[in-house]
Amino acid sequence: MLSKKVIENVLYAALSKGGDFAEVFVEDRFNTNIKLVGGYVENSISGRDFGVGIRVFDGLNSVYGYTNDSREDNLIKLAKDIAVALNSTKGDIALNLIESNAPNLHPIKIIPNNMDKAKKVELLKLGYNSAKNYDPLITQVTTNYFDEEQNVLIANSEGLLVEDKRVRTRFYVQSVASKDGEMQVGFYAPGASKGFEFYDEIDVKEVGKEASRIAKTMVLADYCPSGVMPVVIHNEFGGVLFHEACGHSLEATSVAKGLSVFANKLGEQIASPLVTAIDDGTLPNEWGSLNIDDEGTPTQKNVLIENGILKSYLIDKLNARRMNMESTGSGRRESYKFAPTSRMTNTFIVNGDSTFEEIISNTEKGLFAKKLGGGSVNPATGDFNFAVMEGYLIENGKITKPVRGASLIGTGAEVLEKIDMVGNNQTFGQGVCGSLSGMVPTNVGQPTIRIKALTVGGRKGDN
């Protein structure tokens, strides 16, 4: 992408006015996004995006710039402009870039970019027809196909020079069910760090049926009662609650500045002893996995909480300086247009000892949140509010009727402490997470868990 000599010259220019660390991030990305609405292709976008980001540290200060003009003279000019912005004192510079290859933990069999677009549209039509024909109540279906190949080169003044290829594929179906003027939405969107071979492993017709099943179930449901009650949160997309309400508060982006409810609590009991939580970017071919992070550090298995004890945070290079700790391979960014910061990869609560059936049968009365939708959280306080996309009442230890309009309200710390049953059926759900460094693919996961008391918002009055 860029020659070693050009990179060296850019790094020298970036440190020409001082600074104690410089980094070059080169990205060459190919992606395809096809959207089918009403059975017809609404848009089909295939493109290439190439650019270079340059970052310089001086102590705890950082300046970042980027460009899509990769001519050497332009890159050197940008690097010098960044150097001037730091207003530092020039020191001795000695570079010795050592080329290395990141071990590939995520083998790809079929590069999606090599596949004919007609095959991709055919998949969309199969998913659409399956979803639309599921039931007469389904009035609208949207299907999306997505793939990308991201090639990166990362070099820095510490001698790092490494390249990596990331390939991801995802299939998305959204169904709308309508009845008596009411509409409910269901969606399902599996994805992986895999190539086109992903479609040998999933059935897009089943993806379409699942999206429509959710929409139909919810449009026929009664409104959820409100009140404080036990809440059983299912696996797969239930993991978004831990991701948002707790995971963001464990990222150094907020911890290093003291803006997290979990700042300065390493070694303390912050959760139920039943809870062990991990972020692991090394899991083979998972949606949130990477060989190296966007700072060139190998990803790793980070045990965040072990038996309720806070063990570690997710840390990038700059915040590692602020916290006097090591990077955990958690520096991520959407593209070359963003400076990296600490982010999650595949974040999940580890399996416990209870079965799904035991958790339900031991819950006399409460809410079963099978799938969670969107929500909001304040990392400084952990306060959250999440919509339940698919929910059911639990009565006399059994799952009974579906309910809609439910929301979960509380704090991350409260949830962690009140988990009193953890299942043995951990799975992942795929999502895209937004933060300071843009949108990045992340896996959320957990087994079925029970929170013994949580505020449930609903439209039917107290339960």
Automatic annotation (TrEMBL):
GO MF entries: metallopeptidase activity
Residue intervals of the Metalloprotease TldD/E central domain: 112-218
Keywords: Hydrolase, Metalloprotease, Protease
GO cellular component: cytosol
Gene3D superfamilies: PmbA/TldD superfamily
Protein name: Microcin-processing peptidase 2
Family, as annotated: Belongs to the peptidase U62 family.
Sequence ranges assigned to domain Metalloprotease TldD/E C-terminal in this UniProt record: 226-458
Gene Ontology biological process terms in this record: proteolysis
